[in-house]
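Suppose a classmate hands you a notebook page containing two proteins, each written out with its sequence and a corresponding row of structure tokens. How would you begin to make sense of it? This section walks through that situation. The first entry is reproduced here exactly as it would appear on such a page.
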Amino acid sequence: MKFNQYTWNLYKQSSDGKAVISSFSDRKEWIEEKYLLEKYNPRLKDSFNTDIICDILEDFWCCKVSDYEDIEFPTLDKAGILYEEIISTGLHIEDEEILKIGDFDRMLEYVPFLSMELNFLLNEYFFPYLYIDRFYELKKLVDYFDIELPSIPKKPDYKGRCMYYWELCKVFYQFRTENNLTPDEFSAFLYDYAPNLLHKEEKSDIPQPTQAWFIGGLIKGYGEYWTTGFWQSNQETKKGDILVHYETSPVSAITCLWIAQTDGVIDPFFHYYSNTYISEKIDIPHITLKELQADEYFSKHPLIRKKFQGVNGWPMSSEDYSELMRMIQAKVFSTEALPKLYAPDLPKDINIERERDVELQLLEPLLNSMGWYENKDFIRQLPIHAGRGHRIFPDYALHYNNKPDEEKAKVLIEAKLYMKNNQETEAAFLQARSYAHLLESFVIVLCDRECLIVYEKRQSFDRDIYKKYYWGELENPDLFNELKNKLKTKRT
């Protein structure tokens, strides 16, 4: 969805909108009172106390950022040079070295606090980054408004991850200036206007779990009734996956199961890099570390032999999960209500070795069975004008119109051999979404040898709102017709 100037004008003229914009304009007050952090990211109280936040803000302002108060930075490039210099030169208070020069690992956790002071210093180019441990929500926002995020650096590249804040500054500077927003209006857009729009968006179904993972850490401290939230995980976690929670010392036991509410998210500002949102907690009888070490099967398991060191994101095999169910049953606890791993099957007599096999043996027979045929209802490699006469060719356009300069298709389909991880799925989604914008499509379908992933456009395409259909499942008439109705889309 492109930025809607009309609805934005209504917002900024409303009493609530004016109040939010005004709250961002008085930057001196909110830096001193931690106002914005507490208002727009209250979860931070679980990680930082007020005194720590005050100390961090005061140290960076007094001993580093304020040194640049009287320097003029009339260009975007010079602001970027300033930021790199600040994060690269450590932090000294009198004779004490608080942060070593080049210690980008530690610098990473200070970037959000530094962003607030840089916004106070030079709000034309710097915005306050308040999405601490909420990068998933920022990704939903940029999807909604068709903003393209920069590529995230690799995990060990701590300087690149610190510099990612500046990459965001450049992207948002372009968005802000193109849409004639003041710096304070953009902050209100980012933390109030856009989240309120996204809150109204419908949620997608949780798929059946195809993988289980170990996660670990004490739950105590998150609140007695803590039932959903952010947790370190494997970046290949899929929405719907089972997360087996080992609580570390002094509990030292597997105590519950969770269900992943999102695909694994890479967060450049999160030290451990990847996380997911967890919910649907199921308490189980405690399986202690000692019991696991004494068990014939788990005593040989590498994670148990390591006493759960490196537990977060450790993949479980289907046998691991089955053996865990055995131990739970032995405690006279019914496992009937516990989630079960789903193993999808391919249709019979199918042999998939390359991408074209996916198209010829799976996708095209499916479309034919729905009554749609090549060069009548769908076309392969539909040429699309993009830019200065450049042509691109999406794999399949369904319900298409390829009149000169009027290329349109209601459904855009991209076929791959196998999207083996979340990164490849996201890359395929972004590629298909770019085609869908040009073709004014209402539905995007990604398919590989395992399944079809269907994204329907609401106000925009959201990479986290999708429905999965495994090929073997489509022998079920209800699921077949459900998918057909999605692809038949009557929207004009």
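The notebook's second entry, a different protein, reads as follows.
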Amino acid sequence: MSGTTGPLAGVKVIELAHIMAGPVCGLMLADLGADVIKVEKVPGGDDARRFVPPAVDGEAASFMMVNRNKRGIAVDLKSPEGQEIVRRLLKDADVVIENYRRGTMERLGLSYESLRADNPGLIYCEISGFGRSGPYADRGGFDLIAQGMSGLMSITGEGPGRPPVKVGAPVTDITAGILGALGIVSAYTHRLKTGEGQKVDTSLFEAGITHTLWQSAIAFATGVSPGPQGSAHPLNAPYQALRTKDGWINIGAANQANWMKLLEAIEAPELAEDPRFKDNATRMENLDALVPLLEDHMLQRTTEEWVERCQARGLPTGPVLSVGEMHSDPQTLARDMVVEVEHSRVGRQKTLGAPIKFSETPGAVHRAAPILGEHSREVLTGFGFSEAEIEAFIQRKVIVAS
């Protein structure tokens, strides 16, 4: 795609994915400069188009967020002609992303084995609920289920005896997409060396397991599975949210030096002599006694005042912001993490920025999410289809062209 910048500029990606994990993978690659062509089903398109409310002028806000920076076509994947269209796209593609149930791509005639015959360098990324092997390979993938089965929900929440709580964000969906993008870039590096393509396979389940690094270390070492601790850390204390006069503040006193800085900030030197809190191990053992003592001090000042006092002493701290407050935070804006793009139906629209910065090959957010079939003509023309072929496809409802 002419004019695209980023380290993956020139890389052609076909996204045969829907909802969240696969589209996040495509989003990561698009932010890095790849030409990501989103292939949506006919009729209806990606199911995320119906995740409303909220909607803006009829366009689902969630769909627009996850599918920016992509071109979009709409194809009847159940028809032989539609399948042949996709096969022709994939003959010249570098990467395909899919997150359907196991067997779907095979039924569509788009299995890795069949596609690699025409394109041996193709990188074929599969993102599923539990991976393409093992006893759960045929199960569907949902973030809630993956969070529960990966152990995440057993360590998230207020504490023992409370109901299980999932992470507020669809963290296994998003992380699986990021892992898929990492796998693709790794496979692409291998292809640059050898010319060989390969299959990349990751899942929501493994994405959730990846987030249990600290807790798995504890379980391996002790034989005991740790439980939820609210905002506290399983290995360091105090390292959690504390109530202030007007809200909450996160305190990162995760080592002895920072513990002493905290005592200086709250003007409580006597706690340094308390045998219950002499080192990290004793503070962890007596966390239930420590937190109320600290909050007695924290309630005397506002969050902003505490951040100023703690930062002046080099103690890691930060307020607990709402999503809207995060959007307007000066660091968010300085890092270009809120940007605007022009949507063909909605007009100017805010979206999140690219999270990885490069000194020589910067990526960019330059395109809003497509309306259904917005780039069908453009993409098919670019892949060698004639105008007559495209018009015939439209008439026979093989494709949608907006």
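A careful reader of the second entry would note: The chain has two domains: 12-211+329-400, 239-243+248-319.
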